[in-house]
Amino acid sequence: ADGDDELAAWTLRHAMDESSRVEVYDGLLREAMSLVGERWVTGRWSIAEEHLASRTLLRTLERLRPDMGPEGRIGPLAVLAGVAGEHHMIGLACLEQLLAEDGWSVANLGAVLPAEDLGVFVARNEVALVALSAMDGARVGALADAVLAVRDAAGDRPIGVVVGGGLAAVPGLATTVEADGVAHSLAEAVQLAQSHRPG
Q: I need a labelling partner for 87 at 20 to 30 A (CA). Which of 2, 57, 109, 136 fits?
């Protein structure tokens, strides 16, 4: 809340001494993000305070990156992105670290990525998995466009497409946007990624 990423990093490191990274991110960190969102929605915090807390969490996550060494660059490539119009980044930053720990090479393309640009990136790289994030129900169309762009770019290549974020709660989302799976948590996202890992 006060922008103290040093204290936030200490808190999360202490939690990771007791639990796995995925448990801490799905638990303590998710609760912190929910609290930030709730305070903003209810008007207790201004956009400025919400932005400060979110930026603090992102800086904290940078401090907590797992040290994978050179071998961390040789796993299958997972591409992460927030769909067009989607500004939330914290879930993508968490998933990036979890997939890296699981042996993936990760390209986190960040937020607000147009579907066409995602397709171009997928066409130019040996991608095994695409994980897309969207929070707002108004982004179902953008999510469907992003999945279609991946499918068109993939051609005959088998690329798993997993979707998550707030939209994961939408009934029948995987069928609606033609994704291979919907992740309701980071742990579930990692499990879905494992199911699409090349032999």
A: 2
Contact 130, 150 (CB under 8 A): yes
Q: Could you read off the pLDDT of 98-140 as tens digits, one per residue? A: 999 999 999 999 999 999 999 999 999 999 999 999 998 889 9
Q: From 102, 128, 130, 104, select the one nearest 117 (Cα to Cα).
A: 130
State the pLDDT at residue 134.
Answer: 94
**Helix 90-101 with 47-63: angle, nearest 10 deg:** 10
**H/E stretch holding 91:** helix 90-101
Torsion sign, CA atoms 97, 31, 196, 181: negative
| Bridge partners for 105 per DSSP | 77
- Listed in sequence order, the residues at least 6 apart from 168 whose beta carbon sits closer than 8 Å to its beta carbon are 182, 183, 184
**Regarding predicted confidence, which is higher, 32 or 144?**
144
Does pLDDT of 69 surpass 80? Answer: no
Asked if residue 156 lies in contact with residue 126, where contact means CB atoms within 8 angstroms, the answer is no
Q: At 49, which helix (H) or strand (E)?
A: helix 47-63
